[in-house]
Specification:
5-stranded antiparallel beta sheet; Structural Genomics Hypothetical 15.5 Kd Protein In mrcA-pckA Intergenic Region, Chain A; alpha+beta; about 100 residues; 7 strands; two-stranded antiparallel sheet
């Protein structure tokens, strides 16, 4: 049982990058989030990634080129439990000024 509990705790320590971006409401569709990542346009802690399933943890810094918004640099504050309203999504991250 202890191994199962440890596995569950580990699973809560991270979230898929595409799922988090969608839940944080950066793009309207999860498939758009995955495409942005697969095109190599997203960086996690300054490292480019092309994997939509990349593990994202609180404290990570993302660099995102967003349509109509330009390049945003954000710090992940929390993992998403769901795709909620914009006010809830805004609590998942903080913008880092240029």
């Amino acid at each position: 049982m202890a191994a199962g509990a440890a596995g569950e705790a580990e699973d809560r320590d991270w979230q898929r990058l595409d799922t988090w971006l969608w839940s944080a409401r950066f793009l309207k569709a999860r498939s758009d989030c995955a495409r942005l990542i697969q095109d190599g346009l997203v960086r996690i802690n300054r490292q480019p990634t092309e994997k939509a399933h990349a593990r994202l943890r609180p404290g990570d810094v993302l660099t995102l080129p967003l349509p109509r918004a330009g390049v945003k640099v954000i710090r992940v504050l929390a993992l998403a439990r769901r795709r909620g309203p914009a006010t809830e999504a805004r609590t998942l991250y903080e913008e880092i000024p240029e």
